[in-house]
Design goal:
- By secondary structure, the chain is an alpha/beta fold.
- About 40% of the residues are buried.
- It binds pyridoxal-5'-phosphate.
- Pyridoxal-5'-phosphate binds next to helix 6 and strand 11.
């Protein structure tokens, strides 16, 4: 029960003393919102929403706030307007972090986006074979493409890599133990920790080696009757340097083979292209991991693979069949839009066109000189509109828990201030623009790094900056 009624029923004479009198009746707020024309909700839902707004105001007053009636009205209208704005409309990523988890990771190719939109809007023969009209597996196409691209015997796709690891460990090791290097019992991000996932799968973690050095013999000595698997986790978001040692997949495969144990590798990024060709460090690809002897490899679809969110599990036929048959498979299965998008993305690789069609690889492959020219053009455009903008040489990063510590040479447009806005004020204004622009702040300048912006977005980027600051 509210502690005080809205103004309509406030006893006469009490309103000037009663702070709750500042809260208008919901009916009058609805009239106000309709007059301003800021809502598309029907009356029933607008009423419910405003009741919520009003009860928040009431709580604030109980806590000592003393708003005026106009202030409450203004907030109510603003809250209704905020609900009309979609939060997930596209933004321009000028942060210089290519796989930005907070901005939704990898953008997909236009072909991939079209395939996903088409699958979402209509029906697809997800589990029917058009030739026979009989039921067929939903993963047939993806599995064929993954096998083609990686040399794996079998492949399945689930919702994300976290789900991939969870189901793989549940199917292979529940009730038994899994050996992990002390240096790899890590947190991936967002609270996702390897020891916790292992526990959740019903397996017991057996840590071997030390934080900085673990040898193949450490694993060999830890194997006993309860061992179900060896797990290797790619250190995707940190780097151990100095006096370090880690066992390779090939060494682990030699340890595991005589006992018929699987070696599971969580690769994280799941590159299908060789990063070294683009001036980056060697990043293990799915194919190299399998080639070295991993029995099961898991990876994300939306990191270096450059597709939709997905978890990819490839490996030996017997292990993949066991994972596919686990009850969790239904709980973590990928939907039709994911599968349609992944198929379109994988086809870019199969056609040998990934580095100029898959956005993440297009950005990685951008020549520094070309980025500099684009930054100069944007800076010129902003300067002629009255801004003080410079071109700075910067370091962009791949991000998304890929290639930690490595940078890609880049260029950014740097703006220190504009009229009364400092760098963080500018950044905020651009984040609220349409489309929103996200940059980063360095040395009290707002940097708009062009490595993470595709060249065809330079025009819209300039338009958006000018519109936001008009
Ligand atoms: C990113 C990452 C994960 C989690 O993958 P999601 O697709 O985000 O679920 C797991 N392991 C490693 C090594 C990673 O880099």
């Amino acid at each position: 029960m509210p502690k005080a009624a809205p103004d309509d029923s406030t006893p006469a004479g009490g309103s000037s003393q009663n702070p709750f009198a500042a809260i208008p009746a919901v009916a009058s707020l609805i009239q106000l919102v309709r007059a301003v024309g800021v809502s598309t909700l029907d009356d029933r839902h607008l009423t419910r929403y405003l009741q919520d707004v009003v009860s928040r105001e009431r709580v604030a007053i109980e806590d000592g706030a003393r708003p005026g009636r106009e202030e409450v009205e203004r907030r109510a209208v603003a809250a209704v307007a905020a609900l009309e704005r979609t939060r997930l409309s596209p933004v321009l990523n000028a942060t210089g972090v290519l796989i930005h988890t907070n901005l939704g990771r990898a953008p997909v190719s236009s072909e991939t986006a079209a395939a996903m939109a088409a699958a979402a809007a209509g029906y697809v023969p997800l589990e029917l074979d058009p030739e026979t009209n009989e039921r067929g597996g939903r993963l047939r196409e993806i599995s064929t493409l993954m096998r083609l691209l990686t040399g794996a015997e079998a492949a399945i796709v689930v919702n994300n890599n976290a789900a991939a690891i969870l189901i793989a460990l549940s199917a292979v090791a529940a009730g038994r133990s899994v050996i992990v290097s002390r240096g790899e019992a890590v947190e991936i991000g967002g609270g996702f920790r390897i020891p916790d996932v292992l526990r959740q799968s019903g397996a017991t973690l057996v840590e071997v080696g030390t934080t900085n050095r673990t040898y193949a013999r450490d694993y060999a000595e830890a194997i006993d009757g309860s061992t179900a698997a060896i797990l290797k986790v790619h250190p995707s978001n940190f780097r151990v340097s100095g006096f370090t040692a880690a066992a390779s997949i090939a060494e682990l495969a030699r340890v595991a083979a005589p006992r018929a144990l699987p070696v599971i590798e969580d690769l994280g990024s799941g590159a299908l292209l060789d990063a070294e060709r683009f001036g980056l460090d060697r990043e293990p690809t799915i194919a190299t991991s399998l080639g070295a002897g991993a029995s099961i490899v898991t990876a994300s679809g939306d990191k270096l693979l450059g597709g939709p969110q997905a978890g990819i599990i490839v490996g030996r036929r017997d292990w993949i069949a066991r994972i596919e048959a686990h009850p969790l498979a239904r709980a973590v299965r990928a939907d039709k839009t994911c599968l349609a998008g992944l198929s379109a993305t994988l086809r870019h690789y199969a056609r040998g066109e990934a580095e100029w069609r898959v956005p993440i690889w297009r950005m990685i492959a951008l020549a520094p000189d070309a980025i500099r020219h684009r930054a100069e053009a944007l800076s010129d455009r902003l300067s002629s509109a009255g801004f003080v903008a410079e071109v700075w040489k910067t370091d962009a990063t791949v991000g998304g828990g890929s290639l930690p510590g490595q940078v890609l040479p880049s260029f950014a447009v740097a703006i220190a201030a504009h009229h009364d806005l400092d760098a963080s004020g500018l950044a905020r204004r651009l984040r609220l623009g349409d489309p929103a622009v996200f940059g980063r702040i360095e040395e009290r300048h707002l940097l708009l790094d062009l490595r993470s912006v595709l060249p065809e977005d330079d025009g819209p980027l300039g338009d958006s900056i000018l519109a936001a600051l008009r």
